[in-house]
Amino acid sequence: MSVLYDVAGPRARRRHAIAAVLTIAGLVLALIGIIWKLQMEGQFTADKWEVFSTPVYLELIGRAILDTLRIAVLSIVLAVVFGVVFGVAKLSDHRPIRVFAWCVVEFFRAVPLLLLIIFIWFWGFDTRDDIIAPLVLGLTLYNGSVLAEVFRAGINAVPQGQVEAAYALGMRKTAVTRIVQLPQAVKIMTPAIISQCVVVLKDTSLGYYILAPGLTTLGREIWREFDNRLATALVLAAIYIVLNVILSRVGVYVQRRLTESQTVKPVDLESARAGAPGAVV
Length: 281
Description:
Layout: H1 10-40, H2 46-49, H3 55-89, H4 95-110, H5 113-121, H6 132-157, H7 160-168, H8 173-188, H9 190-203, H10 215-226, H11 229-260, H12 269-274
Helix pairs in contact: 3-6, 3-9, 4-6, 5-6, 6-8, 6-9, 7-8, 9-11, 10-11
């Protein structure tokens, strides 16, 4: 018996099984209907997909992937720096600094990212070299503001006893933040930081609206030329999924290494009592 719900009886289990079968059957029929509809409209013909096996277009897709990664890396690095600076500033003892940081962070967290990118773009970025600037700047301001809250929460999550011990040793607040709190905050908030990095990578697709180089901009040119919106959307989605999975795996690896560096090996009490060599007392 469960304390949260009553265990289903024979009749309830039969109803659940029938409902599950009908749900799966309905989903399968819906999927078959969608595939049939797309087939009737010629979405699976060779001419719709041939572009993705043509060497010239594969080279263009490769360049677009590199452009997307370049924008993502720049945005992530700048967003992390922005987040650290303003996250620490929100904890400052000086009220003007604290109020200014609060206003900046809350403003850029509240503004829709696409509107922010378009607004920056209207400043006059009109060359290919500069067209990524409004995208990178918009991603930095928005995601940096989110990371500022992440770092602030991470710093506040550090045990107060360690902070008080650092003050007792005569350290100033700047040194306490830099040496004691920030390193531990990064380890505590690593999952949130990784998640935000994935968000940055996905948000690079918004460069489509300002013609910034990248996957979505190239995708628009492909489906305009070959009239294969579905094929292009599926291929771009698959590329983004692969890139995000790789980034997530790298983040999990980094988190595991940071966690293992803090793991304390268990003490062998029997060996310690016996005074065995190498025992930890």
